[in-house]
């Protein structure tokens, strides 16, 4: 019997690539649907009841973990995570997940994951696999880990950026502008999601639409209305809003 598979990723090219790679094992895997976000993911899992999900961890309206938390044990499929999370979190995937794919992944690594899926589904019960996912979600809640890199689609290629290189991040519609090393990249994410995955000791939320690297701050200049201008070492200037002023300035006193 074929493994009924659902692909969940907000990037059309990413979904297409997984689908193409699965096509080479069409005698074993059947793609039964796709989803672009958390809401569609939950709906598709409940309606289609897949055996397996390739699940993007980072999506604009939440995370892949948010989708899994909305599913009961009886509706929980086996999961291969597709992620740009740091190595510490990857250790958790090694223990609790069927497998994971770390962006950017090779065709060889994908087929290794597919082989592991076949093996695990053959020898593990649905109850065992569901419990593993529940254990992973519990682990991630009690062991908060922060990103050490970002993987960004840029000019038809995937660019890997160490978070240490990031100067600032600003909201830009449904995207974020990531400023790093004198260049600007567009990342499909929300400012709230990203701020929760960056180390708050290093990255400061200074405005509802702005995050800056504390090590890049040169000075604060008073403005009208109780606001401040935040000047970075590269000359970039951002507004420190009144809502964040007390917390941020106290860290530099």
From TrEMBL:
InterPro entries: CheY-like_superfamily (IPR011006), LytR-like (IPR046947), LytTR_DNA-bd_dom (IPR007492), Sig_transdc_resp-reg_receiver (IPR001789). Signal peptide: none annotated. Residues 150-253 form the HTH LytTR-type domain. The keyword Cell inner membrane does not apply. Residues 4-118 form the Response regulatory domain. SMART domains: LytTR, REC. It holds the Pfam family LytTR. The modification 4-aspartylphosphate is found at residue 56. Keywords: Phosphoprotein. The keyword Nucleotide-binding does not apply. This is Two-component transcriptional response regulator, LuxR family.
């Amino acid at each position: 019997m074929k493994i009924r598979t659902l692909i969940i990723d907000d990037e059309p090219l990413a979904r297409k690539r997984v689908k193409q790679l699965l096509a080479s094992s069409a005698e074993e895997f059947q793609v039964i649907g796709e989803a672009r976000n958390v809401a569609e993911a939950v709906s598709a899992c409940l309606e289609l009841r897949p055996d397996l999900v390739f699940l993007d961890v980072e999506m604009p309206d939440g995370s892949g973990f948010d989708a899994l938390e909305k599913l009961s044990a009886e509706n929980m499929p086996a999961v291969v995570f597709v992620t740009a999370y740091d190595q510490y979190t990857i250790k958790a995937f090694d223990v609790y997940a069927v497998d994971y794919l770390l962006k950017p992944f090779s065709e060889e690594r994908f087929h290794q994951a597919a082989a592991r899926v076949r093996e695990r589904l053959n020898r593990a019960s649905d109850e065992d696999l569901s419990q593993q996912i529940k254990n992973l979600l519990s682990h991630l809640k009690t062991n908060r880990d922060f990103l050490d890199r970002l993987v960004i689609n840029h000019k038809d290629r995937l660019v890997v950026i160490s978070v240490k290189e990031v100067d600032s991040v600003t909201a830009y519609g449904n995207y974020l502008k990531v400023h790093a090393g004198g260049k600007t990249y567009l990342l499909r994410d929300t400012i709230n999601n990203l701020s929760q995955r960056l180390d708050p000791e290093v990255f400061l939320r200074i405005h509802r639409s702005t995050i800056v690297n504390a090590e890049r701050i040169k000075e604060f200049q008073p403005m009208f209305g109780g606001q401040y201008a935040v000047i970075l070492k590269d000359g970039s200037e951002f507004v420190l809003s009144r809502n964040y002023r007390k917390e941020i300035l106290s860290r530099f006193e």
